[in-house]
Amino acid sequence: MRLLFETVATGLDSTAAAEPGVIQWELTDAEPWHIHVSNGSTQARPGRVADPRLSLRWKFEDFVDVVAGRQDPRRLVATGRLRPRGDLRWVWRSRAMFPPL
């Protein structure tokens, strides 16, 4: 799992983040992970943080499908399979840090 999250962290363009923040993955069927995004660097770590900027709750399988390009995260949000929580304005202002769909 470490390799997957390190790959995701490397794929983020952290220089495009509006401000530093933490994205947390609340996986319903696996351990939680989080990625610190700050000043052009990212760090993936297992576990939870107290106050993430964004929290994503979903199944591990759906997360892998998004990373592999087999699923559109917007569709998962629309169907309730992905539930983002937190500072969605930060996500919008930082949207350039995410790879294009």
Globally, the shape reads globular
Can you count the beta strands?
A: 5
- Gap from first CA to last CA: 22 Å
Strand pairing plus helix content: what structural class?
alpha+beta
**Secondary-structure arrangement, i.e. CATH architecture:** 2-Layer Sandwich
**Poorly predicted sequence stretches spanning 5 or more consecutive residues:** none
CATH superfamily: SCP2 sterol-binding domain
Average pLDDT over all residues? 95
Q: CATH class, please?
A: Alpha Beta
Computed over alpha carbons, the radius of gyration is 12 Å
Main beta-sheet strand count, sense and barrel state: 5 strands, mixed
The percent range for strand residues is 25-35%
**The CATH topology, please?**
Nonspecific Lipid-transfer Protein, Chain A
Q: Assign a percent range to the helix content.
A: 25-40%
Task: Write structural notes for this entry.
The protein is α+β, with helices and mostly antiparallel strands and 101 residues long. It has a single domain, classed as SCP2 sterol-binding domain (Nonspecific Lipid-transfer Protein, Chain A, 2-Layer Sandwich). Helices cover 30% and strands 28% of the residues. It is built from four helices and five strands, in the order αββββααβα. The radius of gyration is 12 Å and the shape is globular. The mean pLDDT is 95.
